[in-house]
Design goal:
The structure holds two protein chains of two kinds. Chain A is about 30% helix and about 15% strand. Chain A is an alpha/beta fold. Classes of the chains: A alpha/beta, B alpha/beta.
C-alpha cells in the first residue's frame, strides 16, 4: 500500500520508534517568539542545559509588540519585559533574532516562508498553534506548548503520538476568485467538519481547488487547520512552492538539487489510503462570515443567522453554545448578515496579512472612504510585506481611505498589545478566532476575508463582495 | 482521587477564555491562577477549591497553544478536567508539565454528574464514582503512550522502556 505525504515526512524524521511508546521525531526548524518561550529558557538555565542546535532555531517578537510608532519606548511595562527577555535569551543561547527594529521582523508564520526558512519536507515547530501555516509548503508544522518548546531547545527532538491522516479534497473552480477567497474555502471547510472535525489528524488539502491557489492563499488554508481541530495541515509542494522559495535570504545554497529530490518524494502515492476524507465543492460557494463565538459558527454572506435549533441539529450542547454565542454577540436569529453594522475593521494576522491579501483588499478600498463611524486598520504581517506594499503604493490607498497603516505584528488578532476592541465593539476581522474576548474583553469578532473586511469598512456593514467592482 | 465538580455544560471551551491573552505576559503562576476562566466565568477564582475537577463537553481547550491555560487551572487547585473530548495541544500541555489530568468521559458521565457533585476518580480501574448520586461511570483509558508520560511525571521525566 502506498503512503501519504504526511507518512513520508514522519518516517524520514523518526529517531526512536517502539510499539506503544511515543515516537521521537527530529525537528528541522524551531521558531521562537516572546510569549511561549520565557519559561522554556528558564527551564534550560535551571537544568544547566544548552540549546542543542541554535543554528536551527530562529526567533522574533510578534505577539505583544506595539504596531504604532516604533521609535517611541514601549509603554506597557510587562510587554517591554517580555520583549527584553527574548532579546537576552537569544543573546545568552546564541539564537538568531529578528529584533523589533529588524527589517525582517514580523509575525513568525509570515517571516518563516518569506525568508526561505520554511522548507518542503521538513519538520517545523513553534510554541504557537498557527504553526500549521507552514504546511502550505509541504512541511510538517506543529504548534506546541512551552514544555515541548523547552524539550526541542534542549534536544532538537520531540516525543509525539503519530497523528491520523485526513484528506480534505477541494474540487471545482470559483467563478469569482477575487470575491471568493482562500479564507472562504477554509471557513466553509470548518463550518462543515466542525471545530473538532480534524482532532488528532494531519489534514492534507488536495484537489484542483487547492492547486489553483497561490502560496499566500495556501497559507491561509493551512493556517486555520487548527481551527478545525487538526494537529497540522499539509499541501503537497509543486512548482508554485518551489518558485516561491527560490532566492530568498535563507534559501539553501543547494536549492535546485533539493527541488529535484522533493519532486520525487513529496507526494501522496496514488494508492495511499487516508483514515478519513471530506470533499468540498467550491463551484458555488459564497463569501463567508462568522456570526458566533467559534469559527464553525459561520454562514454565507447572503444568508441570515440560523436559529440555535437549525444550527445544532438536535445536539443539546451545540444548541446551548449557539444560544450563548448569540447572546454574547448581541445578534438575533433571522438577521441578514448584510444588515449587521460594525464598529471596527482589522486587516491583519498570520491568516490574512500577506502581500496578496493587502493587494486584494486595496482593490475594494481604492478611491473610497471608510464609513464615518468606523475605525479601520491594516497591520501588515511583516515589515517585508509592509515595505513591498508601500513600494506598490498600497499604503497610500489605505491611508487616503482613512485606514490606519501600522507596523507588523499579531496586533488585534489576540489583544496582547494596545490594539484591542472595547467591550461591545463589533469587528470585521481577517484573523482566525472569534472566541469570546479574543480581541479584547467583551469585543465581538466576525471572521471574514480581507476583501470582505475592506468592503465592510467602506459600507459600515457586511456586503456581498461578489456584487462589487475590483479596481 | 476525590473532589467536587465545577460544570460548564457547553462544548469548545477555548484557551482564550481559560486564560485571556492579556495575561500571557504574567509569569507569576499564583497571579495567573487569579485570572483562570476569567473570560467565561469571572466567579471561578472565588469558588474553586483545591482538589476540584472541571466537567465540560467536547473539544475542551481548543485554540491557542498557550501552556498558561493548564498552568492557570492547575494553580487554581484543579486536579483534573473531565470532558467529552479535548483539543490536542491542551491535552499534551496538561500531561507534559504534569499540571493536571485530562480525562475523557462518555455521555453518561457528562449527563449524570452535576455542579457540586463529589466524585472519586480511580485511574487504575478507569472508573468514576459519583459519591453524591451513588452512580458509577466508565472513563476512556489513557492511550499507552500518554499513560507512560503521565506515569513518568511529565515530558522531561519520560524515558522509553529499555529493551
Amino acid at each position: 500500500m502506498g503512503k501519504t505525504l504526511f507518512e513520508k515526512i514522519w518516517e524520514s524524521h523518526v529517531v526512536v520508534e517502539k510499539q506503544n511508546e511515543p515516537t521521537l521525531i527530529y525537528i528541522d526548524r524551531h521558531l521562537v517568539h516572546e510569549v511561549t518561550s520565557p519559561q522554556a529558557f528558564e527551564g534550560l538555565r535551571m537544568n544547566n542545559r544548552k540549546v542543542r542546535r541554535p543554528d536551527l532555531t530562529i526567533a522574533t517578537m510578534d505577539h505583544n509588540v506595539p504596531t504604532s510608532n516604533r521609535s517611541l519606548p514601549i509603554l506597557d511595562q510587562t510587554s517591554a519585559v517580555q520583549i527584553k527577555t527574548l532579546k537576552n535569551n537569544c543573546k545568552d543561547f546564541g539564537i538568531k533574532l529578528f529584533d523589533i527594529d529588524s527589517p525582517n521582523q514580523g509575525i513568525v508564520h509570515v517571516i518563516g516562508p518569506q525568508l526561505g526558512i520554511t522548507l518542503p519536507g521538513s519538520t517545523i515547530v513553534c510554541g504557537d498553534s498557527h504553526t500549521s501555516t507552514h504546511g502550505a509548503f509541504g512541511a510538517l508544522a506543529l504548534g506546541i506548548g512551552t514544555s515541548e518548546v523547552e524539550h526541542v531547545l534542549a534536544s532538537q527532538t520531540l516525543w509525539l503520538e503519530k497523528p491520523k491522516t485526513f484528506e480534505v479534497r477541494v474540487e471545482g473552480k470559483r467563478s469569482n476568485p477575487h470575491a471568493v477567497t482562500a479564507k472562504d474555502i477554509i471557513l466553509s471547510i470548518i463550518k462543515n467538519i466542525g471545530t473538532a472535525g480534524g482532532t488528532g489528524t494531519v489534514i492534507e488539502y488536495r484537489g484542483e481547488g487547492i492547486t489553483d491557489l497561490s502560496m499566500d492563499q495556501r497559507m491561509t488554508i493551512c493556517n486555520m487547520s487548527i481551527e478545525g481541530g487538526a494537529r497540522a495541515g499539509l499541501i503537497a509542494p509543486d512548482d508554485k512552492t518551489f518558485d516561491y522559495l527560490r532566492d530568498r535570504e535563507y534559501t539553501p545554497k543547494n536549492y535546485e538539487s533539493l527541488v529535484d529530490s522533493w519532486k520525487k518524494t513529496l507526494t501522496t502515492d496514488s494508492d495511499a489510503i487516508f483514515d478519513k476524507t471530506f470533499t468540498l465543492d467550491i463551484n458555488d460557494i459564497a463569501p463567508q462570515v462568522s456570526w458566533g463565538t467559534n469559527p464553525g459558527m459561520t454562514c454565507d454572506v447572503d444568508e441570515s443567522i440560523p436559529s440555535p435549533d437549525e444550527f445544532s441539529n438536535g445536539d443539546a450542547n451545540q444548541k446551548r453554545g449557539a444560544e450563548k454565542a448569540l447572546e454574547y454577540m448581541a445578534l438575533k436569529s433571522g438577521t441578514m448578515i448584510e444588515d449587521i453594522m460594525i464598529d471596527r475593521v482589522f486587516i491583519g494576522s498570520c491568516t490574512n496579512a500577506r502581500l496578496e491579501d493587502l493587494i486584494e483588499a486595496s482593490k475594494i478600498v481604492k478611491g473610497k472612504k471608510v464609513a464615518s463611524n468606523i475605525n479601520a486598520m491594516v497591520v501588515p504581517g511583516s515589515q517585508m510585506v509592509k515595505r513591498q506594499a508601500e513600494e506598490m503604493g498600497l499604503d497610500k490607498i489605505f491611508i487616503d481611505a482613512n485606514f490606519e497603516w501600522r507596523e507588523a505584528g499579531c496586533s488585534m488578532c489576540l489583544g496582547m498589545n494596545p490594539d484591542i476592541l472595547l467591550p461591545g465593539e463589533r469587528c470585521a476581522s481577517t484573523s482566525n478566532r472569534n472566541f469570546e474576548g479574543r480581541q479584547g474583553t467583551g469585543g465581538r469578532t466576525h471572521l471574514v476575508s480581507p476583501v470582505m473586511a475592506a468592503a465592510a469598512a467602506i459600507y459600515g456593514h457586511f456586503v456581498d463582495v461578489r456584487k462589487l467592482d475590483f479596481n | 482521587m476525590k473532589g467536587n465538580i465545577i460544570k460548564y455544560d457547553r462544548d469548545n471551551i477555548d484557551t482564550d477564555v481559560i486564560i485571556p491573552g492579556q495575561y500571557l505576559k504574567v509569569h507569576d503562576y499564583a497571579e495567573l491562577a487569579t485570572h483562570a476562566m476569567e473570560g467565561l466565568d469571572p466567579d471561578f477564582h472565588s469558588k474553586v477549591k483545591e482538589g476540584d475537577f472541571i466537567l465540560s463537553g467536547k473539544n475542551f481547550g481548543c485554540g491557542s497553544s498557550r501552556e498558561h491555560a493548564p498552568i492557570a487551572l492547575s494553580q487554581s487547585g484543579i486536579k483534573a478536567i473531565l470532558a467529552l473530548s479535548f483539543a490536542r495541544i491542551f491535552y499534551r500541555n496538561s500531561v507534559d508539565g504534569a499540571f493536571l489530568l485530562p480525562i475523557e468521559i462518555y455521555q453518561d458521565a457528562y449527563d449524570g454528574i452535576s455542579e457540586g457533585d463529589e466524585i472519586d476518580i480511580d485511574i487504575s480501574k478507569n472508573q468514576i464514582k459519583n459519591i453524591t448520586k451513588n452512580q458509577t461511570y466508565k472513563m476512556k483509558p489513557f492511550s499507552e503512550i500518554i499513560g507512560k508520560i503521565i506515569a513518568a511525571g511529565g515530558l522531561f521525566k519520560y524515558k522509553p522502556d529499555q529493551d
